[in-house]
Structures are given as C-alpha cells and as structure tokens.
Amino acid sequence: MRAFQVSQMGAGYAKGEFGEAEAPLLEKGFVLVAVDAASLNSADLRVVGGELTGRFLHKNVKPLIPGYDFAGTVIESADPGFAVGDEVFGFLPYSPSNSAGTLAGQVAAKADSIAKKPEGVSMLHAAMLGTAGATALQGLRDKLRVTRGQRVLINGGSGGVGSFAVQVAKELGATVVATCSAAKAAAVREMGADEVIDYKTTSIKALPGPFDAIFDAAATSSFAECGVLLTKTGRFMTTLPSLGLLTGKLRAAVSSRSCDVIIVKSTPADLAQLADWIAAGKIKVAGESVPFDEVKKGFERLDSGKVVGKVGVSMSKG
C-alpha cells in the first residue's frame, strides 16, 4: 500500500517520503479500513519531530507512518459488529505500543474504538473530528465536569482542539470565554464564544475571571499561572503532560480546586455523539485540507500556527 513515511522518529516531516508499505495484518477484534481521509494533529508534529512527549505517543518503528485520525470503508472485518462496506471513523491510540499510522492506504483499527459514520457527515469531516473532538468532549464533560450555566475559559480557542472545545462547551450550556490572536477572533466568535480575548495583548492572569473551569487547549498555560482565575472549587485541565502539571497538582491538592490532564481515548459512544452533533448542524468542523500528495504542505500549515481549526488530508485522487 502507498504510505507517507519518515525514516524514524525525529526525522521530521520535511524528510518524509511516499513509498510502499506492507498492509496491516488483521487480528481478532479488528477491522481493516481503506482510508478515505485522515487529519493531522500537534501530536503528529511531536512524533515525527522526535520530541520527548512524542516518544510516549507512538512506537519508534523504522520507517514510521504518522497519523492517528482516519475515516474510511471497511474492506475486511474480524469483528461481528462491522461488515465489509461499512463507513467508519475514529483514531488510533496515543501510546508507545502503537506502531501504525493513518497516512496510508489502509489501517487496522480495534472495533471497539471506532464508530459508523452517519450519512450526513463527509469522510473528510469525520477524519478531522476524531482526536480533537473527543479531546474536547471528554475534557469538558468528564474531567472538568462542565454543566449548564457555568463559566468556562478555553485557552487557545482557534486551534484544532480549541475550536471544538468552544462549540462543545456551548452545547453543554456554558458561557464561553476564549483566547486566540486578533486575526482569528472573528472565526472563534462564529463558533459561539461569548467573549474572545487577544492573548497577545492581554496576559492570562489579566483575564476576567472567575471561571468554573479552564481548558488549556493550547497547552501553553499552567495551574500556577491561572489558578487564581478559578472559583473556589474550579477545575483546570491541560492537554499535554509536563513537570508544571505535577506542580499544579500539588498546588491544587491544598485547596478545593483541581488540576488535571486529558488522555483522550477513541470510544464509539463519544465519536457517535460528536458526529450526530455535526450532522444536526450543532457543531461545525473548522479548518482546511490538502490532498494526500501534498501532505507535507499540510504539516507545514499545522506547524505554522496559522490554521483556524484542523488540517485534513484527502486520500482520494479524485
């Protein structure tokens, strides 16, 4: 099968090449999917760039096929819940045990980690939904326990995760304040943010608290920096483990506040909920896409920080 590969973790996307790779083997409880679309995440940059955190997100195989998110058609099934021809979507596990990648013609996925794609959602949008949408939903609903009427801060409301977090928080009934650059403010307001603040001109400590929950979607803040903005029982959550997280947990432990990190999992129920919201027009997929042949350009766009939302990859030649 055709795949985009880097020679090893740390080689960087600029040195990636297209080539032939062995098709994945089908194991019991898995389905083999012909990939119609994929999408890129910051984790992909960390993996191909060889960052320390990247080594906890993917097995260091040589060569390495990047990519976690996908949507496609089942071409072989070893699970009774899926049949050949089913259109499905989801994402691979963020784990050092994962040796697969979705920037390829086929991917083998665990049947209990994918969902059937609704007719009202395109393959491209389904692929762009997985990691970022699930991170937003699981983070806001499960970690931050956001409920109707609460006030929520989304730090980095224009990114892949942040763009979904703004919309999911609104679906949960929260009042949403989001940070982003001035150039992206209009887009974030369109997503539903009640207030948008330019992080370049206003420091996070100067934001108009208090907040019941702070979602550090951009992974650029910390409990130490913005814990003062929380209510007495407020909750802070980031998307990237760090030493600062450990310090934050210790600080939070001596108060009634909390500090945590989201470790996202691909679950059929959450994927289905997100896709149903999209099909119903309740949330939208923000971003842009590139054809598979131009995946390096997609990496460049993601790396530039100029994209509002996600970067999708269309595998079709049509």
Task: Give an account of the 3D structure.
With 318 residues, this protein is α/β, with parallel strands linked by helices. It folds into two domains: 2-117 and 286-314, Quinone Oxidoreductase, Chain A, domain 1; 132-261, Rossmann fold (3-Layer(aba) Sandwich). Helix content is 26%, strand content 27%. It is built from eight helices and 15 strands. It has helices spanning 42-49, 123-143, 160-171, 185-190, 223-226, 243-253, 268-279, 295-304, and strands at 2-5, 17-20, 30-40, 69-77, 87-91, 106-110, 114-116, 151-155, 175-180, 195-198, 211-216, 230-238, 258-261, 287-291, 310-314. Strands 3, 4, 5, 6, 7, 14 and 15 form a seven-stranded mixed beta sheet that branches. It is globular, with a radius of gyration of 19 Å. The model has no long low-confidence stretch (mean pLDDT 95).
State the major sheet: 7 strands, mixed
Count structural domains: 2
Helix content: 25-40%
Multimer state: single chain
**CATH level-3 fold name of the largest domain:** Quinone Oxidoreductase, Chain A, domain 1
Number of β-strand runs: 15
Summing up helix and strand content along with how strands pair, one would put the structural category as alpha/beta
